[in-house]
Write a structure and sequence with these properties.
This protein has 98 residues and is α+β, with helices and mostly antiparallel strands. The protein has one domain (3-93). It is built from 3 helices and 2 strands; from the N terminus they run αβααβ. It has helices at residues 3-17, 27-42, 72-84; strands at residues 20-25, 89-93. The chain has a two-stranded antiparallel ribbon.
Length: 98
């Protein structure tokens, strides 16, 4: 199953159906997601490693764990919650004249 692909398809279908011109994640939602991902990673030893997952393969890159460790059920739940009421997104509807 292509989880991200299915999510994008649902998002774009809903965008079309609701006559939405633009969808953008809010800064607050981006920061909340980052903190969620980092909080999960901090509970492991993975953040202590010198791995590519931490950006160790790119000189000067900020060391930060970017892989989601919450598991598939929680990941799917978080995606569904975001689409329920566009929580965390700034949307702009198309004008009726467009």
């Amino acid at each position: 199953m292509e989880i991200q692909g299915d999510y994008i398809l649902r998002l774009l279908t809903r965008q079309r159906d609701e006559n939405i011109e633009t969808i953008e994640a809010s800064s607050e939602a981006e920061q909340a997601w980052r903190e969620h991902v980092l909080g999960l990673a901090e509970r492991t030893l993975l953040v202590k490693t010198n791995s590519w997952y931490m950006g160790a393969n790119i000189p000067g890159k900020k060391r930060e764990y970017l892989i989601y460790l919450g598991g598939l059920p929680l990941y799917k739940q978080k995606m569904a919650e975001a689409l329920e009421d566009w929580h965390g997104f700034t949307i702009q509807h198309r004008s009726k004249l467009s």
